Amino acid sequence: MPARPLGRTGRTVSAIGLGTWQLGADWGDVSEADAAAVLSASVDAGVTLFDTADVYGDGRSEQLIGRFLASRPGHGVTVATKMGRRVDQDAANYTLDNFRAWADRSRSNLGVESLDLVQLHCPPTAVLEDDRTFDALDTLVDDGVIAAYGASVETVAQALAVVGRPGLTNVQIIVNPFRLKPLDEFLPAAADAGVAVFARVPLASGLLSGRYTAETTFPADDHRAYNREGAAFDRGETFSGVDLEIGLAAAHELAAALPPHISLPAATLAWIASRPGITSVIPGARTPSQAAANAGAAALIDREFDLERFDQAVTDVYDRRLRAAIHPQW
Q1: If you compute the radius of gyration of the chain from its CA atoms, what whole number of angstroms results?
Q2: Fewest C-beta in 10 Å: which of 12, 61, 87, 189?
Q3: Is the Cβ–Cβ distance between 27 and 223 less than 8 Å?
């Protein structure tokens, strides 16, 4: 598992991490035992980055991670959490007092004195453009409440607005074969700034898993059932904002471009992780086998697989099937 620098923190994180939204909520039920098994399989496979948020299951994901890591002394895992989505998305709510309260809650959930990395959780653009936001975050670093901070964003424009902040450690943004805009328009700027990049939603909410068909159904409490049109939060978080039928056709074509022994999800994760400027890819997993398979995709980054040929297929499929289907802001 390749290890890569986490911005200017002096830490390194694995090229394939683990996203843990599914351990909290919005992906159907995941038991505590299943969650612990997923976390264990990830660490055993070399994963050293867990990404979570205070809003995932209203803190359940953080709590599960905290209990698991307490049972694994010397684990070497960096936990990146997020804050800001437990209140109305009004820029006036993004204050030092609220930041401190949210961080204190996450510290309690995770059972730590200081948070490794806190990311603003897709806040309003005005928050990312406000000097006071970063003054407040710098204060939390100075106080030892958090070790570092970053931002999770919805759009390339937001990523570019925040990347020049001197204290910023990372930006988290959707990158996958359905969402190519960040590759040319943001990743070079992040590299120039020494800012780490986490690629989220790498498998387009499972569309690039190769498991789904037009007949696939999802539980009512799964965002892939209730948020396809953006009814609950930004539509781009669900299937990367792509219509299900268009996404399925694109995924089928990408899978057909691969050798028989290479799965579409493994190829996708390796392809994303190999893009210049990507620090870590953070797929989710609901089972230990999924977690191990995701981590195992790191083996394809440097061998066994013609990434250049797959890159050509990605570009071709995107241009023919997806470019017109992606909202311009993404």
Answers
A1: 18
A2: 87
A3: yes
Check whether 304 has a pLDDT greater than 80. no
The amino acid sitting at 15 is A
Any alpha helices (H) in the chain, and if so which ranges? 32-44, 60-70, 96-110, 125-128, 131-142, 156-162, 181-185, 187-193, 223-226, 244-256, 264-273, 288-296, 307-317
CB 60 within 8 A of CB 23: yes
Residue 27: DSSP 8-state? B
Residue-level pLDDT at 125: 97
- Residue where the block lists tokens 């691969």: 258
CB 91 within 8 A of CB 136: no
8 Å CB contact between 152 and 233: no
Under 8 Å CB-to-CB from 158, ≥6 apart: which residues?
A: 125, 128, 151
Interval 205-264: pLDDT, tens: 889 988 888 888 888 888 888 988 888 888 888 888 899 999 999 999 999 999 988 999
Q: What are the tokens at 83? A: 């804050």
For position 295, what pLDDT does the model report?
97
Residues 6+ apart with CB under 8 A from 52: 20, 21, 23, 24, 61, 62, 65, 79, 80, 81, 82
* Cβ proximity of 204 and 239 under 8 Å: yes
Cβ atoms of 98 and 87 within 8 Å: the answer is yes
